[in-house]
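Dear colleagues,

As part of the handover before I leave the project, I'm documenting each prediction I ran so the next person doesn't have to rerun anything. This entry is a single chain, and its sequence is reproduced below.
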Amino acid sequence: MNSNSKVVKDFIDTVLNRGDIDSSGQFFCDDMVEQVPLPGQGPGLEGLKDVLRGMRAAFPDMHWTIEEQICEGDKVVTRFEWTGTHRAEFLGVPATGRPVKAWGMVIDRLEDGKIKDTRILMDALGLMMQLGALPRPQS
């Protein structure tokens, strides 16, 4: 297994799936850059931790699964799916109690064994429809 791939897999297991958000610094540089930040996300590692805390609060049973991973040089591309139950406000949507399933990809670039910049591309439209924030298309 590529060492960069292992860093990303360990982050998903430790931080996203176990909820150990304070361990994020083991996997990310302090001055990491989120190329596509969530609304209101602050800079660096602390901004990332805040977003992760918000996601964990909104989806306390959140679980991420790696569907596919490609590594080349200093970059790791991970295709993922995550599931959870909406228990608190998320992106302005009050808790619905609904189960959700979201898919996406993350492109991480590592420096010296830590993620320096990251770009998440996720099906936010589908997620918002599952939460009832947007109407589902009519057939």
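Strands lie at 28-34, 63-72, 75-85, 99-111, 114-122. The mean pLDDT is 96.

All the best with the project,
I.
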